[in-house]
Amino acid sequence: MPQVKLSGKFRAAANGADTLEIEARTIRELMTRLVERYPLMDEHLETGIAVAIDGEIYRDNWGVEIPPDAEVFLIPRIQGG
Amino acid sequence: MAGVLVSTTINGDAVDFACPQDETLLDSLRDRVGLTGVKEGCGTGDCGACSITLDGRLVCSCLVLGVEANGREITTIEGMADGNKLHPLQENFITHAALQCGICTPGFLVAAKVLLDRNPNPTEEEIRYALAGNLCRCTGYDKIVRAVQAAAKEMRKRK
Amino acid sequence: MGHDTSYTNQEFKVVGTRVKRPDGIDKVTGRARYGADAYAPGQLVGLFLRSPHAHARIKKIDTSRAEKLKGVKAIVTSADLPDLTDGNRGLLDILENCMARDRALYDGHAVAAVAAIDRQTAKKALKLIKVTYQVLPHVTDVDEAMKPDAPIVQDYVFTSGVDPKPTKPSNVSQINEFGHGDVDKGFAEADVIVEKSYKTEQTHQGYIEPHACLASVSPDGSGELWVTTQGHFGFRITCAQLLGMDMAKLKVTASEIGGGFGGKTHVWVEPVALALSRKANRPVKVVMDRDEVFKATGPTCSTSVDVKIGAKKDGTITAASAVLRYQNGAFPAIWGMLGAMTSFACYDLKNVKSVGYDVLCNRPKVAAYRAPSAPMAAFGVESTMDLVAEKIGMNPVDFRIKNAAKEGTLASYGPTYGPIGIGPTLDAVKNHPHMRARLGKNQGRGMACGFWFNFGGQTCTDLNIGIDGSVTLTVGTVDVGGSRASLCLIAAEELGIPYEQVKANVADTASLGHNDMTEGSRGTFSSGMATIFAAREAIEVMRSRAADMWEIPLDDVIWKDGQAKAVGKKHGNLPTLSLKEIAAKSPGTGGPIAGHSEVVADNAGVSFASHICDVEVDPETGATKVIRYTVVQDAGKAIHPDYVEGQFQGGAAQGIGWALNEEYIYGDDGRLQNAGFLDYRIPVCSDLPFIDTKILEIPNPTHPYGVRGVGETSIVPPLAAIGNAVSNAVGVRMDHIPMSPPRILKALEERNS
């Protein structure tokens, strides 16, 4: 089960937790489960969440599969210039 | 528009246009004559993107009035190539990747040609100071200077 | 989507060669058409009326006299721009920035716009518009704006990231913390600690081409927009949403772009141009003048940063912390958060904490500027790194090497790094001949590191093969710096044909699916990846056509060196079929041959750079001359090395200007005093030396060619590299960017007293 770590910004919406265990095979599943468990995360989904899987950042591609023992980190969605 | 008739020569061709007295030559060239190679970057003579020659002298066309062009000779970037043969400066800008977005390129080419016509063998410092009136935000000027050096060398060989 | 994006470590035939770019001739002859180079029959000139106050309530706008002026065809105020955002505050902020609603929030904020038959008439009309302002107190400094008695810029903003939730509005829109470990414990273990504060002033991307567009809206709600932009698909979405138009009915065409650097990823005048056109039922051309560009587009943040680093005598950093205050202009955004994320990204730290504050001011809305927020944080951190190295008596490069992040390092912003390039860039710097060059009187040397994320994104590409075998590559990412050449190289490489046989075009929004903006260093990376897959799809079509033409099974056909070959003992005698031959026969074998790709290209890889700089400071005038500059950066794979070098040099030059001269100067009245290129001084040709570049190629494992994003990282190190160099030259630590002559003279005075 992937260990999902949360960036500071998101911890308040997850009742202060900084690490969650969420069963999910893709990023989309992860997001769905996250909002199911913590409805306050919905607000952050609007403003944007990016997902780092084993250090690689995904901004949009929610079909990406999450390997079972991957390190998953949720960071705010950012842009460049 | 209470316009004034201006008769001028542009890139060797006789051109007439009418413009208001307070219009810049930059706007006249772009909006009346249709030569959009000359660009407005600042409108205050600080960036050189509007560079042309007026009676052989390098000027910022945003600091010249359209009516001042009456009876005078103008060259713009559109007159730099000889038919379908690019000027060595134009060629070298491409081969040396001396442009990224290209908006400043016409101004640089006009200014560099004025330099090389008057000084066919400039030092790096002379090139840099001659082009100090043209702003580029993309390249850091490195490849522009190299392109001018290469073009100068080529032009000297041809002579 | 099923495509394998992993690195294939292949040998290249054309990728990596320095070919001529396809848009080169147009750009050296003046034929290329930029934002202001479009003309439509019957077009009107659009001009804007802008607030002369930094903060004011708009009590009344009387446009009656202006409307009566002969030649005026439409006037637009916020009354013509109803809120259609349905509670989307971010979208409403965009609308409000384009045209003030009940308040003017900064000097230059648009309050009305006019479309008239010519410029003279439009200017007269602006003068006839009477705006009644009630001037309000303003605040333009980031630290002042955080004080409890500061004027509030937006009363709907309550600080997020604090517990309990605040009940009073604030200029601090969010506070974000990143890091791990225990910094208090770490500092307690340190042998030396350096703690220092820094300030950086506001700068602008400074693209030479002002924003410009030609908008044309018909009574049936369809419209066209020609615009200089980094992302025409994004602009279409935003403009359609703000104006209540159907996206599919709005065709946006990207002109050639005269520089963007992030500043052209937002709409500024475009929605209002469309609104004017809609009201007048005629095309409206809007071209910003330079004054407006400085005042009313999106500069980067001014900042105030505190950094604390503790280390053992052997050079191991035991703790690092930073507090960063970033001014966002008049609308809340995430720039401070971004600065906090990038602060310590270069290093492998056990105990690290960075806190970013996003603060509102009566200044224009901040936009991204090339690796946004990273340069300022790097200035603080990299300057402090030098101070710590000095205190423990260690070479600054060795100190960084000792603490550099590597594969497996837990990044300060959260995730664990895969293979990364900071170690190699530092090694390259250490061994670079620049480090051994002799320094003369009043000269100093400095170096610094930088980091940036790089992004992928939604990308859509078409590849069509004409019956003469020439290939048209249609992409949706705007070409900001020569990427069309790289994309043609990639298509040529995949197809096995000469570079000259491929022509790349940037399509309008009606001709291609959505493409994200050219930002985040993603242009070549994303469209390159989509090009590879589109080419491979076309190859599959050609294999099948060849199989049909030969009447053999598809499995017996391979594609090699631009040709279909029949393999196997049975077909050994069949002559090969070239792409040209297959294309020529295509009408009879199934019609046009094409490949297509929609891909969300992700994992552009993180990118590291190290810079070295030598400066000479004139002790009488305080003027600094950059005498030598070297950029070392990891590009993954340089598709076209000239353009990768160009990105390195351009980013460095912008950083040099930022470090030495560029700043927004505000008066006590909150008005911008230097809104032009004379007094906002960017580097000119005579200011700079040749900029040496060294491209490292540590392949990105998640791109078939190993490409990483390259465009942004090289603006991150210069502020600190020059800060360190100047500090070494004058013998005083510089802590305020830009290090303009007055500041250097003041530092010299303090040193001498």
Description:
The complex is a heterotrimer of chains A (81), B (159) and C (753). Chain A has helices at 8-11, 27-37, 41-47, and strands spanning 3-6, 19-21, 49-53, 56-58, 71-76. By secondary structure, chain A is an alpha+beta fold. Chain A has a 5-stranded mixed β-sheet. In chain A, strand 3 (49-53) and strand 4 (56-58) form a beta hairpin. Chain A starts with a strand and ends in a 5-residue tail after the last strand. A 5-stranded mixed β-sheet of chain B has the order 2-1-5-3-4, sandwiched between helices. Chain C is an alpha+beta fold and 753 residues long. Chain C folds into 3 domains: 24-32 and 456-600, Aldehyde oxidase/xanthine dehydrogenase, molybdopterin binding domain (Aldehyde Oxidoreductase, domain 4, 2-Layer Sandwich), CATH 3.30.365.10; 35-136 and 210-257 and 264-296, Aldehyde Oxidoreductase, domain 3 (Alpha-Beta Complex), CATH 3.90.1170; 303-454 and 605-752, 2-Layer Sandwich (Aldehyde Oxidoreductase, domain 4), CATH 3.30.365. Chain C has 20 helices and 27 strands. In chain C, a hairpin with a 5-residue loop joins strand 17 (457-465) and strand 18. The longest helix of chain C has 28 residues, at 523-550. Chain C is globular and about 90 Å long. In chain C, 61% of the residues are buried. Chains B and C meet through helix 1, helix 2, helix 3, helix 4 and helix 5 of B and helix 1 and helix 18 of C.
Summarize the structure.
The complex is a heterotrimer of chains A (81), B (159) and C (753). Chain A has 81 residues and is α+β, with helices and mostly antiparallel strands.
What would the keywords be for this entry?
heterotrimer, A: 81 residues, alpha+beta, 27% helix, globular, C: 753 residues, Aldehyde Oxidoreductase, domain 4, 7-stranded mixed sheet, 6-stranded mixed sheet, 20 helices, 27 strands, 28% helix, 24% strand
Uncertain residue segments of chain B: none
Question: How large is the radius of gyration of chain C?
Answer: 28 Å
Name the CATH architecture of the largest domain in chain B.
Answer: Roll
Top CATH class of the largest domain in chain C: Alpha Beta
Give me the number of helical elements of chain B. 5
CATH topology (fold) name of the largest domain in chain B: Ubiquitin-like (UB roll)
Question: pLDDT below 50 for ≥5 consecutive residues: which ranges of chain C?
Answer: none
Number of domains of chain B: 2
Write down the domain tally of chain C: 3
- SSE arrangement of chain B, N to C: EEHEEEHHHH
Derived from helix and strand composition plus strand pairing, the structural class of chain B reads alpha+beta
Distance between the termini of chain C: 67 Å
